[in-house]
Amino acid sequence: MSKFRQKIYDFLVRRNKQVQYEYERYVMEHVIEHHEHHLLHWKILIQLKWHFQVKKNRFPLLYWDLFNNSDSQDIDKSLKMDTERYDDTMVKIEKRNFANTLGSKLSNRAQIQHFANRFMNHDIISFDVYDTLIFRPFSEPIDLFMILEAELCIIDFARIRIEAERDIRQLNLVRYGNRECTIEDIYTLISQRTGLNKEKGINKEKELELRFSYANPYMLHLFKILSAKNKRIIITSDMYFSEKFIIQVLQKCGYDCDVIENVYISSEYNVSKSNGKLFNTIRNHYPNEKIVHIGDNLEVDVRKARDNNIDAIHYPRCTDISKKFFCDEMSPLIGSAYKGIIANHIANGNNYFSAGYEHGFIYGGIMVMGYVNWVYKKAIERGIDKILFVSRDGKIFKAVFDSFHQDIPTEYIYWSRIAHLNSCGNFNRDIYLQRYIRDKSHSEDITLKDLLEAMNLDFLTCKLNKYRLKEQQLLSVENAFLVEKMVIDNWNLVEKASKESIEFEKRYFDNIVGEAKKIAIVDIGWTGVCLLDLKKFLTTYVNNNISCSLFMMAITPYFEKGMQSTILNNDIEIYAFSNQTNKEMYKAHRMTNKQTNNVFFEIITQDTIPSYKGLQKGEILFDIPEVENYETIKDIHKGIYDFVRIYRNYFEPYSFMFNISGADAIAPIISTYRDVDYYKTRFGNFCFKRNVISSNKYVIETLNDICARKRL
Amino acid sequence: MILYHITTTYQLLNCIEHSIIAESEKKIAVLADFLTYKFPQYQDMLKFGFFDEIYIIKYADIKMVDTFDYELIDNVCNSCIPYDFDEFEEIYIAGIQMWISIFLINNEIPFIAFEEASGGLTRPEILEHNDERISHIRYELMKENHIYDYSNTYIKYVICNIKAQVFIPECKYIDFDPVLNFSNFNQTEKNNILSFFKCPQHVITNGDETIILTQQLANLGVVAFEEQILMYQLFVDYFCNGERIIFKTHPDDQVYYTYLFSNAQVINDKFPSELLPYIFTKCPRKISTIYSTGIYTISQMFNETFELDMNYEYSYKDIYKYDVALRILRNLGCTNVKSEGLDETLLHQMQKNLSDFEGTDITGYITGKEVCEIENFCRYEIIIFFNHSILLKDNFNKMIERNYNIHIINITIKPFRQTDIYMSDTGCEIILAINDRLEKGNGISMKEKFRLQNTGIDIEYDEILGNKFDYEMLKGQLKATEERLKHYIEENDELKKIIHEKGLIE
């Protein structure tokens, strides 16, 4: 290109970034046409310049994909985001600030009864349809095409569908001077490109639209309030579907369509809200009435309406509001379904939820649902005839599992680190000594007398003198070795003392296992030792003919190089992460926030009972309960149930939607590690009993105490 | 020259009637700005001759969140009328909880108060309860100035409907019955009032209907919008099922009763419920409300009245428990039901609904309290605990230890609405304790399933069966929880001791 021509080109095209982007993209996609029909391309360039430079519009003319997908219209930024999204590892996580933004209050919407007052002085209320009256359980409307791809069994159909709509809109712009199109136009093109029967494609897409559309509860209330007040209602939408179909969708979603006075659909009027002409049509139809329009797009629904003397109220799209706290590290389809459900439920304005409920709904639901369905799949593969969920995390897992699957019986079992040490010390003497003596010598101010009592070994108190130890002496790093030696020297007595406990657990598990021959034990995490020893206990004492599969959400072994063969050998099967799979998540969990992430993680799966300690001196003991947390825990569980119920309601016919990878299930909760303030502000008073081993003295720490201690 | 200050529909009716009767050369009305939105036709009151001049007081300009701004109150009140307040022979304040009362008190101007709503003089808790939610700062100020109980010294006397009061008021009052007064007016005056309020005329009824007076509970922030819907759905399901219903909505109530109750007639017009008896072709049989004070002035015009009370705001969430508990007691042959810690009005009304309590003289006992007197366990044959945390309490544990020969049965209640995926009520539990003395307990089914028609909620209740290990585990948990409670009690005693030692309390 000569310098002169280059200058003219720069002046005409590159002076405006949006003109340049849309024009050059169009040319690149229509290279042959560019050479054969110069005039047509000049026409498009003029239209673009008129649109962006004269009219100063900020929304696109030809390419809406990036506009819809990004917060701003900064095209460079959007493109950059797409390429960079998956580059970073989770360990180098960027700091996020969820604390003051996350949740149902984020939308800052007025309560519905107050919001409705804003419409009382108008004669006609115009409603936008999608993302206002109607929701779909996806973060972007086009994500529904991924499901359509599965239904039609056409490879890459989602892309084909998006491109067909884009191309037909461009074609119509050139042909008729507007971008409007119908579903028939789109599928005519798809039919040409793929050989798909046009009617079949249209019907399937409509079927899915109908299936996945559901009422925005906030707007459903508004609609009913206004129609009960005899307000006249019209529908205004830029959409390729027909009026008849839009009415069908609204009806299915519970809107009383008999009260709808008129429907203005861009595809039928060949004018749109985006160019303002559809509003102009409405204004002409109702020249003297006071009209107000409500919709989610600031430019299209608000500015264009006001340009045509129609009052407008902006109802920001739930997914746009929620973008700030979305987790970006999920796969496209599951991520879209997850984000759509979260945003539409939390940010629609219908309810303000408690911190616990939102935590359960946003972070717990997908995690618990993904895990239990994975467990079910594994259980079916292995022919498991009973599943045991380990307390206390197992309570919510079992409840959600039972709500999905009734063909495998389940049991909630009482088991814990203390119960494990008291019953399995003879299998794993080193762990017994490690947890009871060595660990505590670093962390607790406990006298030797209290220590022996907590270990249920108070009969050894009289032997302390022999090892130059005293009852009131504190356990320390220096004397731990002697205490350990005393216990080892008297191991036969230790074994004898644990007999009562073993007998009880034997009877308890005998009752639990019943006739089952193949059982699975399910736990959340973390070292795997308790679970391995429980398996050994069951096969040794309860029934040596049973086979035991062990499932864990994640594993973080004591010793970084530990448990490797166990994992490789599938002795414990891991859902979400270990130092072998999803390593970035493993690192994020284990190596950030000074090893406090277990505390954050387990807030979701707590139960409203104390931790089980097993049988001691003829009595079943439980640890000191953190009763202060119970109301929050109930709210968290409620949030989890609700997420699961809503997700299931929409996706039940698609079994693949429940094959949620461990990475997807856990990505949202891992993303919260980026903002410790989120936990501090919302769960700062959540209580934890420090050191579950000793019973004589206990310290209740709040999450804020822990964060302060760890300087987080 | 007299002045009326008016903020609500009920007060508007009262002041119009009072003004018609009152003898004064000039009658001036000051309407709260928000009242004029409700009655854009307010200028018609001049046309009908109710008042000689009408002014608006702009309460929307008084926005106080943290601190009082007396100057702002003075400015707003002074600027609302072109007169000096000293010029009036009498000042009648209806809506005394508004800022104008503070203005008058600060300026040492005595006034006559209208009670805020019918029967409100002896039910100050209703107004307090609502105000606390709406504006805490105003609530505090009004309380400090003894406004809610009408005992401020600048209140000369109170105009109230004595028939609607719970008891004879101690303060100085004048009886004023808006319904009686209305009936004494001539036909033109009556027509003027009915025309001003745009009351519907000749609503066709056959006399067997139930009118439900609704309240603006969500607007007042008492409950959320959806909670108000559920409250009324359950109200109809439990107390008006099968009846022909007419809703008379509160002027500010936004709930869409036409959609919720397809067979009901809904009167959305904004007029005082005191005028209700004049709009029907035949007066309906029954009038019902949750706790609208509007019922007190007109109840005598209906054959039957039904009323719950403010406790329903909370107790409706437990209504399934009330229902199931009463059903079980009835099935077990109880004739008497004693209770504590519950919404007694709700329990009583529900018991009336389940009319077939007959047979033996067994007394059942229902408790919503967290701690119960241990003696109660041996006094009654059947005890129902609403509060599941009773299990965590010392008394209950002791009862088991003392072996009172009581069967403990956990009953789980599952409300489920097929059509509503958002209904997140995951169920609730009550605990049933049957004394061994009552052989009848054996063999009685603790299982039932039924549907609430308007709500569409299926209620199912059943026993939770446990094994001996469950019981053992439960005992272990109770013991651990007791330890925690003891810790709290000790900590509390310790704190009390410190406070006492430091002389902070006597």
Short description:
The complex is a heterodimer of chains A (712) and B (506). By secondary structure, chain A is α/β, with parallel strands linked by helices.
Overall pLDDT of chain A: 86
Which residue ranges of chain B are poorly predicted, with pLDDT under 50 across at least 5 consecutive positions?
Answer: none
Give the overall shape of chain B: globular
Class by SSE composition of chain B: alpha/beta
Distance between the termini of chain A: 60 Å
Spans of chain A of 5+ residues with little confidence (pLDDT < 50)?
65-95
Q: Helicity range of the residues of chain B?
A: 25-40%
Global geometry of chain A: elongated
Spatial strand arrangement across the major sheet of chain B: 3-2-1-4-5-6-7
- End-to-end distance of chain B, in Å? 54 Å
Radius of gyration of chain B: 27 Å
Alpha carbon gyration radius of chain A: 31 Å
Average residue-wise pLDDT of chain B:
84
Tally of helical segments of chain A: 33
**What is the spatial order of strands in the main beta sheet of chain A?**
5-4-1-6-7
Q: Helical content of chain A, roughly?
A: 40-55%
Give a quick account of the main beta sheet of chain A: strands, pairing sense, barrel closure: 5 strands, parallel
Please report which band the strand proportion of chain A falls in: under 5%, 5-15%, 15-25%, 25-35%, 35-45% or over 45%: 5-15%
Number of helices of chain B: 18
